[in-house]
Amino acid sequence: MNTNTVTTVWTEKVQFESDNPSGHKLTMFSTSDEENDNTVGFGPKALMLSSLAGCSGLDVVSLLKKMRAEAEEFKIEITAELTDEHPKFYNKVQVDYHFTGGDLQTEKIEKAVNLSVEKYCGVMEMFRQFADVKTAIHLHKK
C-alpha cells in the first residue's frame, strides 16, 4: 500500500506553507481573512477543486495520447457549491471538460473522460463520497 506524507507549517497569521511528496511547496491561507489581500497562495477548499481537475485532467491527457486523439486545447472548469452550515463542504460539484480543435474525435474523447470519471481518478471517487458530482463534455471546433 502506498502512503504519502505532507508537512504543513504555520508561517504567519493565517498562512501555512505545505510541501508534497515531490518536495514542491505551496502557500495556503484563509480566504475569509481580510489581511491576506496581498498573499499569493491558495485557499484549502479551492485546492481540493484544483486537485480534482488535475487528477482527472492527467488521466484524460494520458488516455487521449494513447488513443491518438489529442485535442489542440483542453481545460477543465469546476463549479462547486458549499453547504451553508459549518463545517462547510462541497455538496454539489459540476465538472466541465472543454476540448478545442479542428479534428476532435468525439467518441475517443468521451471514452477517455468516462474512464477517468468512472475508473481511474481517485480524487473523483473521494469527492463522490460527500458530494453530488456531475460532469459534462464540451467540444469546440476551430
From TrEMBL:
<dbReference type="InterPro" id="IPR015946">
    <property type="entry name" value="KH_dom-like_a/b"/>
</dbReference>
<dbReference type="InterPro" id="IPR003718">
    <property type="entry name" value="OsmC/Ohr_fam"/>
</dbReference>
<dbReference type="Pfam" id="PF02566">
    <property type="entry name" value="OsmC"/>
</dbReference>
<dbReference type="InterPro" id="IPR036102">
    <property type="entry name" value="OsmC/Ohrsf"/>
</dbReference>
<protein>
    <submittedName>
        <fullName>Osmotically inducible protein OsmC</fullName>
    </submittedName>
</protein>
